[in-house]
Design brief:
Helix content is about 60%, strand content about 0%. The chain is mostly helical and about 80 residues long.
């Protein structure tokens, strides 16, 4: 289940980057206060299920992220260290 949440969070972050939306715009589009997303950029951000559902609801179903964007931050950092 954790991978599903990680993938959803990666997809939400990728969509926000793709649209160049700040956290405030993302929250507004999802019908939330921007304070809900205050830790959005933190790799340890732990949103509620309701927050994830609301954010996922604004992302078009055909929006696809690159596999590298879907990898959890911890795995990305480990790959970068190995490459260095």
């Amino acid at each position: 289940m954790e991978q599903g949440i990680d993938l959803a969070i990666a997809r939400i972050r990728a969509f926000a980057r793709h649209k160049s939306w700040p956290k405030s715009r993302l929250a507004r589009e999802a019908g939330m206060r921007d304070t809900v997303l205050r830790d959005f950029d933190n790799p340890k951000w732990n949103p509620t299920a309701e927050t994830v559902r609301r954010l996922e609801a604004i992302i078009p179903s055909d929006f696809v992220i690159e596999p590298t964007e879907a990898a959890p931050a911890k795995a990305r950092r480990a790959r970068r260290k190995r490459a260095a």
